[in-house]
Specification:
Elements lengths: L7 E4 L9 E6 L3 E6 L5 E5 H7 E5 L5
């Protein structure tokens, strides 16, 4: 899966705040993502993130 810093991902399950979109802050073996609803940051393993992604919304390239 091709995910970069700055992309927005939509997950299958929503965050407890109700939002299901997250900003990608760090990629590697672990991903750091920030909820776009409440701003909570979470660090999760790559395998778990890739399993739960519904759609990747790429950041705009200038």
């Amino acid at each position: 899966m091709d995910i970069h810093v700055g992309d927005t991902i939509q997950t299958k399950k929503p965050h407890p705040c109700g939002s299901n979109t997250f900003s990608v802050l760090r990629v590697g073996m672990d991903f750091r993502i920030r909820c776009t609803g409440c701003g909570h940051e979470v660090m999760l393993p790559r395998a778990k993130i890739e399993k739960n992604i519904k759609k990747v919304i790429a950041a705009e390239q200038n």
